[in-house]
């Protein structure tokens, strides 16, 4: 059985990658054929994504997959919530904004005065994040672009549209917009109308695992693919794909999808829409095969990568990630902890200064050196993971005896160890490319591979990928550290 060989396009906020994934009954191989930097582009006072650049780099990667072997399918996943608008001729209206753009400042509070937070949670089950698509759209109300829009496409759907000409919204990503009814699993037209949005821009929904359409002939020729090569809708929300790739065994498992953001939670069969879950501000995002990702967005390694960017910009010596992590590992644990989800950490900027300000305001020792700031970020992340995983278990009536860490952050051994220490359970780290693996697996099944369910996919990941285990070390007073965190 030669199996299936597909291109998995996995777009992260800091880098995009195109992988060749090969699946046979006993093997799962992932080969990175193209990686390119990604990040916000500031222009005209706003923060955008370079979506044409992403499209171009994606095609370079797909061509490389085709050049090096078979190309049976193409799947795209990316970060959530951001979108492009098409006019009635099918042309993109303006540059897609980054969710870190400040145009949404204050919007969420205004909307919540109009639609009660409880009502909104009952419908969408989503964590209130200021950049959820609904708030971005409310911020865009009255703009020429939104007024002349015919359809709204989330980023993977926009890229898929350029590949196939097909307009649609893949469900896992649609579930992050806060315009999606988590119970009926359909757009909440009602909610869109209530907040004055042109609901007709919301395109037909499609399921992960369905075929979007054949690659357009001119593009097939450009990338050297067979005519008719299918583009497959995977879990197009990167976190949905990453959770497919979590090599979990059994049900008592928690995960941290650790990249630019940390997504921290559990996989459930049905949403938890209780008042307690709402007050804890937990999200219920839709996963592959009808699962629910019950989780919390944590500010994640963004705070560190943005700090590194700042230090490198200022030409601070020893400000590469490996050196910083090495130095941070030798520092006093839990000396300074801050609220790592503080809203001021969301936009790009001088993170070290913001971390120092948070420490100062909370009466914590102010971290001075880059290593100290790094240590504060990692201790504070581990503390947040502990807080949220414990409440995820409590709110859902579940328990866990192991935590899987996947994504680029699974390579941060210090953070993995601190996470095990904080939670008092072992951490299994890896794969770093869980999202790409989930993308590959869902495509492979759509193209005929015998992977009946998530358990079979995860078993294949377990069999084919080496994981690193971190045992919890006793001795630190995480409760006392938690009590020091000042949160709004
Ligand atoms: P995204 O998909 O959001 O772009 P990734 O899953 O690629 O994010 O993770 C990126 C993060 O992973 C980086 O910000 C960095 O902190 C971490 N990372 C990547 N490689 C390593 C490494 N070798 N050691 C430690 N951390 C790493
Ligand atoms: C992670 C992610 C996360 C979203 C954020 C916008 O990449 O998709 O799940 O909340 O980006």
Automatic annotation (TrEMBL):
Keywords annotated in UniProt: ATP-binding, Disulfide bond, Kinase, Nucleotide-binding, Rhamnose metabolism, Transferase
Record's GO cellular component terms: cytosol
Annotated ranges, domain Carbohydrate kinase FGGY C-terminal: 254-446
InterPro entries in UniProt: ATPase_NBD, FGGY_C, FGGY_N, Rhamnulokinase
E.C. designation(s): 2.7.1.5
Single GO MF annotation: glycerol kinase activity
Residue ranges occupied by any Carbohydrate kinase FGGY N-terminal domain in the UniProt entry: 71-245
Coiled coil: none
GO biological process, one term: rhamnose catabolic process
Record-stated family: Belongs to the FGGY kinase family.
Protein name: Rhamnulokinase
